[in-house]
Amino acid sequence: MAGLVAFFAAIQPLAAAEPSVAGxxxxxxxxxxxxxxxxxxxxxxxxxxxxxxKLFPLPTDGxxxxxxxxxxxxxxxxxxxxxxxxxxxxxxxxxYEHGNILDPRDGNIYSAMMTLSPDGQSxxxxxxxxxxxxxxxxxxxxxxxSAVRQLDPIVIAKYMPGxxxxxxxxxxxxxxxxxxx
Length: 181
What we know:
The chain has 181 residues and is mainly beta. It contains three helices and eight strands; from the N terminus they run αββββββββαα. The chain is globular.
């Protein structure tokens, strides 16, 4: 638990006057109210990326983990779990700009911007084509820091190396990385 606290302290400086997007977020399907995916936002050299950190497959999705078959860039053929879906976001206060978002269903990459609520508990994500007004918003919700324990060890090892589990735990997890509900 101490490692978890240290990790989040490192990605969200205590001296920050405003909250940061760094941490775990969930996207909820507006029609069903069910969680679709969790995103882990990490900061590297002043740029934020959103990684697909936990998938919630439907029973009709099949037993194999999805890969990005329609991607047209370096993500083509990569497993969706652990894939950076949002890239290159630059922080300007509570707003994150100049990044992009991938739709893995069709491989399209859209310009993106995000706005964090002042309390840091909700995130409005906007993907758009050309102009901001030609897009759509989704609202995602912050998860508690303790939810990190539910992430796949492979995601933790790659994006949160200070919390990485043992190799044997990663092997066990790889066998059950795509459980059906």
